[in-house]
Amino acid sequence: MAELLTMPKMGFDMAEGTLVQWVKREGDPVAEGDVVAIIETDKANVEVTSFRSGVLRKTLVESGTVVPVGKPIAIIGSADEDIQGLLGETVEVPAGKVPAVTAAEAEAPLAVSVTEVPEVEAGRVLASPLARRMASELGIDLSQVRGSGPGGRVTKADIEAFVRESAQRVPQPVAVPVTVAPPLPSVGVEYAVELVSPMRKTISRRMTESKQQAPHFYITVEVDMEAAVALRQQLNALLPEEEKISINDLVIKGSAIALRQFPRLNASLAGDEIHLHRRVNIGIAVALDNGLVTLVVKDCDQKSLSQIASETRAMVTRAREGRFQADDMVGGTFTISNLGMYGVEDFAAIINPPQAAILAVSAVRRVPVVDDAGQLAVGTRMKMTLSADHRVTDGAEAALFLQALKAALEQPMRLLL
Question: Which residues are catalytic?
């Protein structure tokens, strides 16, 4: 049975996206997971993949079209089935522009041409969501920018070109004769100017909202990682390269176990409601050259360590190659930020809204410790700091969650059960 492919929601505050390119054409066969189209959000270009096998029967929007989240963009089905019913459901006629239908047209086979509904009243410049946001943040009048997209739509590239051209057109100051005075010592510092990227703008906006609206509190624990490091070495000796396990994979699995015991940490705030999520979908913060993205590993409590490791590695690779998939960044219920690879000893992270908590993971270090016999020895330790939203949870509950996570890492065989 034919089904609609819709504009995916890439993050809780995404309202629309721009369809940048069709990778598949009408009539092309598609397999489940094949990349069908590329969309542009305010953070990145993202691959839209097919949810089933079949044939791309109809594309419903043209490249360059701004599409609201959840609206159909294509129909996927078998090669010979009737899709007229689905086509009829996708027709949208702008208000006040209902076309007259002649008797001949009424009897003719249904032929649908989906035309993008104008974003706003006539006279306003057409622009992608990302271009419109950049123009607003940079104080640029969109009517002064020449659009290179379909129908003259202004794109991100057009805004960047306009900024470069404007910088070159800045007039040089006119020399005015003045009375010569003794030279003054040079003051100030030299610096280079770099425009804030759209991704950095988005990060800034979301983190500012989080710190202003969510009353953060912080709890830190130190974990004995001796047994966990030894288990990781044993497992990696048996696993192929694409399934080798990192310290972060151990933390993800341990967090999933603890979140099952303390569901208020696996929650989000929505107005006057606290949503306790049934799935444990853990986001991992990944640094890219132009900013930070959060990739989401789904159902971590139900997956093995090797599954978590291989899925995480695949998503990070796609992100760094700029090949995001629609499912990579949505659905997170808890986030982990790990700076251990940079030798960081301790830090606290800002909650990723609307989630209730985020875990900051530091480096695994060989440090002096006092053993159970009161003797000084060398131990393997790692610090973790939980940032939690006091509107959703309290200190005692958050501390018990960290105790459960600490126990899972210090008795790592539990991660294999």
Answer: 390
